[in-house]
């Protein structure tokens, strides 16, 4: 992805005559620029969640009839993901990078949700496969009724 830039009008002095000319300068903002989560990083996150659910006995997981995609209601899960990235509890290989990108605040949660709903993330075939596998593992308990 290209770095964002601002076009700035600034005076340029030539020949020491003190007369300013206006020129366009590109100012690149690189130092404080973070990068949003990638589809690969998110698929890894979903795979880590699946592994965690696999360690719970099937009858103690969530009921099959409550099955839903990650994307159906992800605010709380996004909050947990960010919290784990910040606490060092996450086993994600990019957890420190992700923690830098997504602060442990309501704004950070909103930012992560917005990024995950982008078509290049949500519609990525590896993300969709990881979401399906998570559902197959997470929702195996009998109905609560």
What class do helices, strands and sheet pairing give? alpha+beta
What's the story with the biggest beta sheet? 2 strands, antiparallel
The total count of helices amounts to 6
Mean pLDDT: 81
Main β-sheet, spatial strand arrangement = 1-2
Distance between the termini: 50 Å
> N-to-C SSE series?
EEHEHHHHHE
Characterization of the model:
It is a single chain. Helix content is 45%, strand content 16%. Helix 1 packs parallel to helix 6, helix 2 crosses helix 3 and helix 2 (75-87) packs across helix 4. It is globular, with a radius of gyration of 22 Å. With 145 residues, the protein is an alpha+beta fold. It contains 6 helices and 4 strands. The longest helix has 16 residues, at 39-54. The termini are far apart. The strands form 2 sheets. The chain has a two-stranded antiparallel ribbon with strand order 1-2. A two-stranded parallel ribbon has the order 3-4.
Attribute tags:
single chain, 145 residues, alpha+beta, two-stranded antiparallel sheet, two-stranded parallel sheet, 4 strands, 45% helix, disordered N terminus
Set down the secondary structure blueprint:
Layout: E1 5-13, E2 20-28, H1 39-54, E3 62-63, H2 75-87, H3 95-101, H4 106-116, H5 119-122, H6 125-138, E4 139-141
Helix pairs in contact: 1-6, 2-3, 2-4
Task: Describe the structure in brief.
With 145 residues, the protein is an alpha+beta fold.
